[in-house]
Amino acid sequence: MAIHFNKRTHRNDELRAQHAGQSAILVGWVNSYRDHGGMVFIDLRDRGGITQVKFNPETDPKAHALARSLRNEDCVAVEGRVGLRGENVNPKLPTGEIEVEARALDVLSKSDATPFEIDDFTKANEDLRLQYRFLDLRRPSMQRVLRLRHDISKAVRDYFDQEGFLEIETPFLTKSTPEGARDYLVPSRLQPGHFYALPQSPQLFKQLFMVAGCDRYAQIVRCFRDEDLRADRQPEFTQIDLEMSFVDMDDVMTAVEGCVAAMFRAGRNIEVERPFPRVRFAEAVDRFGIDRPDTRFGLELTDVTEIVRGTEFKVFSGAIEAGGVAKCLCVKAAEGADKLTRKITDGLSEELKGIGAGGLPVTKVVEGQDGTELATGVAKFVQPVRDALCERVGAEPGDVMFFAAGPYNDVCKFLHHARTRLIEILQLKPSKPWELLWVVDFPMFEWDEQEQRYYSTHHPFTSPRDEDVALLDTDPAKVRAKAYDLVLNGTEMAGGSIRIHRRDIQQKVFKLLGISDEEAKEKFEFLMEALRFGPPPHGGIAFGLDRWVMLLADKESLRDVIAYPKTQRAVCPLTGAPGPVATGQLEELGIDLRPEVWAKLEQRPSGPDQHVHRKHDE
To answer: What integer pLDDT is reported at residue 37 of this predicted model?
Structure first.
């Protein structure tokens, strides 16, 4: 009989023992099929979960006969009575106490053999799963991720609505700006030779909202960057974006903490402790070697410059004489220092050479006949300063000390890498599952020795601290920004700042960054014009929704939490994008391709509607 499938009574995760005796209409896909000769059983799956359905030839011979033709991924509707499974309870399923005894079955559509198993243990490679993403998304784990993403997005919108923020859309077709990653360009048919850019973020538009008096803006928005990809990057991504007027740093950070708390509540049912700790940029780099530290582990960096300055070890003394520093990272015996064999330390040293270090000097602290001694590695060079060194870093017998010497930034970079690898090698356990913190007091500018110019640490619209404004004229390197980054377990999750709202200061910052008045007018004219008309003090932040979902879902790649992602080559295996277009479309846009590009296109097979060929000039 035909079942009115749009009249389903329950999803496949809803029926329980208390529903026994009731009638039910269920729909979904055959997750598994078992024919026991007399009885036929299927596990029926929808986005909610699974319900076992039993077909008894004595209850409905017609439905039973039809059930014997079912195969995995057939789409069906079932009508039946809810019964208890008695001793055959399946404790692994929320619906494991019951089964539906079918009285009618309607096969809505049949399925061909799928290219891979539709389950969470499929061994199919990622390219194949992305090619058949509509099947991959049927898997229960992917359905859970989509649900989690929905729950988190809803929590974000609800939170900002309660806090008085307006969600306002910003344009996707905009103007290319110079800072940041490479833009995706869109040619204009109506303005030949001109291009739109897809926005890397709504930064300038949200500042204009503040000039417009919108006061509080928040948006979940798509952004685009044409950059090389890796596990935590996608060419198109989703950003949680907000801006507030008449605020200081504390106001923005407090608002963000409330949003993050709402996401943790929706995504993991966890209440995070607020306010989040704050760490100054200089302290973060000094202690952990990086401005996004994972503070849940020990292995902090200690400056030993003055202690080893006079040693005969030229790696130390030479670097210090050249104006550099020496730092030490001490692995305690309780952290597994005894596992650090010569093979491991030598291997780690080679790794460091691969990122530009000269190596990784090491020595061990041991118990000698006359007290604490140093052994192996650079022991003989630092033995004269043994006591001062051990006291400075808190080293005791059984500990291992690693060193780096050279320019400050290099030393921090190398020891951060060593720290990260040692945490992995020793399989150290974090002190807590989640650690949220703010990094503040960033330098406003970074100096590029090769290009002999300043770059913005964040972006060119970041405001300097009030007490540092005068330094813009005298010592820009010492200017601190009103900027703040949110870090979760050593991953930067959000970055924001109070913006420059005074035109004269914005012009001064542009000049320091090497942006001429003409270039500023060409690329930022609408912002500079807006700053003439009473802009309010304002600030905001942006954080990637995809990355938050990835971490809260315990996934390792953004591709696992985006419905239709691109590969690392920025290709969509499902649709084949990007692809060639008809020659006529290129002609309408006034675009011709270089000969070598045409040659590559002509080597590819094309569909009948592509017409990928080059017209030869007369």
So the answer is: 80
